[in-house]
Amino acid sequence: MAASDPGLTIVHPNAAGIDVGNESHFVAVPADRDEHPVREFGCWTAALNEIAEWLISCRIDTVAMQATGVYWIALYDVLEQHGIRVALVNAQHTKNVPGRKTDVQECQWLMKLHTYGLMRDSFRLQQDMESVRTIWRVRDRHVKEAGRAVQHMQKAMTKMNIQLANTISDVSGVSGQAIIAAILKGERDPTNWRPWQTTASRQARNRWRGVWRETGGPTCCLNCNRRWTVIILRIGRCRNATKN
Question: Which among 115, 149, 164 is the end of a domain?
Fold first, then answer.
């Protein structure tokens, strides 16, 4: 691609642009690399491999694409496995430029900006650290869901004027759950409860038990910690081997 724009220097002569979508991806390469420089591909794995092979046949070594939802992740991994450097850019950095109305024009615009080095690559964790972050987020989500269920149980008990939270330190403990289970089975003073609140308490308790049943109870945290330890030790061994 010739540097026809005044004042612009070509930084990546073998650059391409990809407009990432849910059902298909539009890929643009320089006009002199293929008879059809813009092509549409599917989003399944075979199509992603086809994209990488076509880019390699067009002598492309770097690609720019926007971080659209989570649709870019699979394509990013496939291109990286084929040795193509991927510049993952923020869509807000290019959305205000006028004149781009179609997916074809979008991928061509990304290719042009990347060719002149005008795209800023976004930070992405390495694969091993990505595993650590995934485990952390799963653990964090389950703990928060269990915490919200406990709050709902406390709220339902308080609305029935059963001050369980003021009597024991943890309603999710053995004693607290035994008391709530007894209340739900009918062991209560009929003058101090409201029937419609019993349903809310039962649903909150079922959600709390469901979260711990899904995650393996408190052992979920221990399992996450063990997996973190294994991954971190593996990262340390790899780095030490690289230094040596």
Answer: 115
- Measure the CA–CA gap between 49 and 77, rounded to whole angstroms: 10
List all residues 6 or more positions away from 178 whose beta carbon is below 8 Å from its beta carbon. Answer: none
Residue 23: inside a domain, yes or no? yes
Q: What is the pLDDT of residues 60-81, one digit of tens each?
A: 999 999 887 888 889 999 999 9
- Secondary element (H or E) of residue 39: strand 38-42
Distance CA 93, CA 119 (A): 8
Residue 135 lies in a domain: yes
Q: CA of 50: how far to CAs of 38, 40, 163, in Å?
A: 14, 11, 64
For residue 3, is it within any domain? Answer: no
Structure confidence by residue, pLDDT tens digits, 192-217: 444 444 555 666 666 656 655 555 55
Q: Do 81 and 186 fall within a single domain?
A: no
The CATH number that applies at residue 103 is 3.30.420.10
1 in Cβ contact with 13 (< 8 Å): yes
Tell me which residue of 2, 56, 7 sits closest to 31, measured CA to CA. 2
Q: Is residue 2 part of a domain?
A: no
Which alpha helices (DSSP H) does the chain contain, by range? 45-57, 72-81, 103-115, 127-159, 174-185, 195-215, 219-243
Burial of 69 (0-12, 13-18, 19+ CB in 10 A): exposed
Strand, coil or helix: what is 230?
A: helix
Instruction: Check whether residue 79 and residue 186 sit in a common domain.
Output: no
| DSSP-based three-state secondary structure for 172 | coil
Residue 133: domain span = 127-243
